[in-house]
């Protein structure tokens, strides 16, 4: 079975410097890789790929937003009616006030329906380390060298 030694760094520059040191001494170029490990629960932030925070506690928020739009729009219509009775006879009030009510209702409904405590925030994932990671494929001969080099280069954990 192959052995991989990995270290987490606070900056990409630190990891790259460490990779150069490892590649320069007894390790093949293909045996050392630097990559970024995303935090748990991040997925599809950018349309080209990447990550965004998501967890199971947020899933009911969509239904809450729909409910909030309905309630907010009705409250907005009542508010527009009160403005009309108060002397504001603008047709924009009949459009704008329900729109604002629906918007505010959607926000309140989404936040109100979220569970607030996602199971993925407990257990092993809480201890999952993320950030810039250097991984080195080592042999018995290079294992100690790789560990010492990672620590000497400032790895936060190995």
Kindly describe this structure.
There is one protein chain. With 158 residues, this protein is of the alpha+beta class. It folds into 2 domains: 3-54 and 128-152; 56-113, no CATH class. The chain is 47% helix and 13% strand. It contains 5 helices and 3 strands. A 3-stranded antiparallel β-sheet has the order 1-3-2, covered by helices on one side. Helix 2 packs antiparallel against helix 3 (91-113).
Write the layout of secondary structure elements.
Elements: E1 3-9, H1 12-24, E2 32-37, H2 61-85, H3 91-113, H4 124-127, E3 131-138, H5 143-152
Helix pairs in contact: 2-3
Task: Report on the biggest sheet.
Answer: 3 strands, antiparallel
State the helix count. 5
N-to-C CA distance: 19 Å
Q: What oligomeric arrangement do these chains adopt?
A: single chain
Q: What low-confidence regions span 5 or more consecutive residues with pLDDT below 50?
A: none
Mean pLDDT: 84
Widest sheet: strand order? Answer: 1-3-2
The ordered string of helix (H) and strand (E) elements is EHEHHHEH
Which outline best applies?
Answer: rod-shaped
How many discrete domains? 2
Strand content: 5-15%
Please give the radius of gyration in angstroms.
Answer: 27 Å
Query: Could you say which structural class the secondary elements and strand pairing correspond to?
Result: alpha+beta
Number of strands: 3
Q: Helix proportion of residues, in percent?
A: 40-55%
């Amino acid at each position: 079975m192959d052995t991989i030694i990995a270290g987490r760094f606070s900056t990409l520059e630190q990891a790259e410097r460490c990779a150069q040191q490892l590649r320069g001494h007894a390790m093949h170029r293909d045996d050392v890789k630097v990559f970024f490990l995303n935090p748990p629960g991040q997925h599809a932030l950018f349309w080209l790929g990447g990550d965004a925070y998501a967890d199971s506690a947020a899933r009911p928020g969509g239904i809450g937003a729909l409910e909030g739009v309905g309630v907010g729009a009705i409250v907005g219509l009542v508010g527009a009616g009160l403005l009309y009775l108060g002397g504001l006879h603008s047709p924009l009030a009949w459009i704008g006030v329900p729109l604002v009510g629906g918007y505010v209702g959607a926000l309140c409904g989404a936040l109100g329906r979220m569970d607030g405590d996602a199971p993925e925030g407990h257990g092993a994932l809480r201890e999952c380390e993320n950030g810039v990671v250097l991984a080195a494929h080592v042999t018995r001969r290079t294992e100690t060298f790789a560990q010492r080099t990672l620590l000497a280069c400032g790895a936060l954990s190995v």
